[in-house]
Amino acid sequence: MKAIKIPIILKKFNEFFIEAGFDAYLVGGSVRDIFLGKKPHDYDVATNATPQQVMKIFKKVIPTGIQHGTVTVLFYNEKIEVTTFRIEDDYSDARHPDNIKFASTIEEDLSRRDFTMNAIAISLTNENIVDSFNGKKDIKNKLIRTCGDPEKRFNEDGLRPVRAIRFASQLGFTIEKETFDAIPKSIDKTAQISIERFRDEFTKLLKSDKPSVGLKLLEKTNLLLLFIPELTQCRNVTQADERGYHMFDILDHLFFSCDGAPKDNIVVRLAALFHDVGKYETRNEEIKQDITGKQINAITFYGHEKKSVKITEKILKRLKFSNKIVTSTLHLIENHMFHYESNWKDSAVRRLIKKVGLENFDDLFDLRLADVYGMTNSKPIIGNNRWTENLIELKERIKKEVENNNAFTLKDLAINGKDLIDLGIKNGKMIGYILNKLLESVLDDPKMNNKTKLIEIAKKLADV
Predict the structure, then answer these.
(1) Are residue 33 and residue 105 in the same domain, yes or no?
(2) Residue 148 pLDDT > 50
């Protein structure tokens, strides 16, 4: 068989196995990445040494999954996961095998794996390739296929159908027909997996170059209905009217908006995916006048951002995203309908900064651009339409306000709660009330952010 070059660190790693009389193979996603011409992010090694024997061979070993034959070896600042050759049977919880038996050959070990592209091994000793399921060919053809009968594979592990879709989205592969057809047939098993496992795969899917590919596969196989039914209610809910803002129904708009969000920012991607999820409950048709005064049939979604916040909060908490991600995502959705006009006073810009938070504007602008992307399924040309023209102008005005060191929050005031207490104002609600009133004054006129002036106003408000 054709050999392949193994990283030097793994060659050194393998010397310890050779000295101890054991075989070791590079397996899993790292092998797939090598054949795809990508640099592996981590290394998984399969061996005929038991976990206890591996722990004797190396000095620094963590028993991360010793009950499943897996330990993690710390080697030259790398964490290398090492698993003993094994075979499995019976998955009563639709995720973990009831019985694990150590195997004697790498071929037996590969036979238990999910997809052919993940069932390839490379010997760390002679770099020979073991490819019992023609995984190399499937990788070349960009095809996802199970090792053996797909229904059996999926009924062993309910997460595998979700992984198949995630891989399709992440790698740009096609799921082989028989494998794809087996996904909805095994939905009862998939329904048994923990929500955290789905969330982790879902997050990886959202970080792919074009998440709409995976999202549509989730919809087509009914997995979206299983885990996020709220999104499926957006299908076939039309938005297009005579104003020409939208080309797609709500669900496709959300999918494409997700594509348009930065792939390395999960908060903006989540916000893009769910920012209009409340539209199906707020949709209305009415007669309106366009800018020329002509009467047109218009589709409206008044207050949909508030409804979207409530629905998204329910979804994200059900999927057990962190409180930080939930809070940040909801804040973006709540504010995504901001409508800036050139005739705004500077005080209005400062109030928007106060409402949104200066630290959130980059994400909010990215969400607005993703929203525009989702209208046409294409990247908007900055400055080439009224949406992006407004963004450019608003960015410049915000930049100017920041450069002028103007106040936007209570922390920016030239006076604080202690100063008010020193004036004889009793600590409590009155302090908060006065500080907020002072901030309103400063937002109207930044020159008011002077300690002497603010003390004078505070005395009048407190009547002291």
Answers:
(1) yes
(2) yes
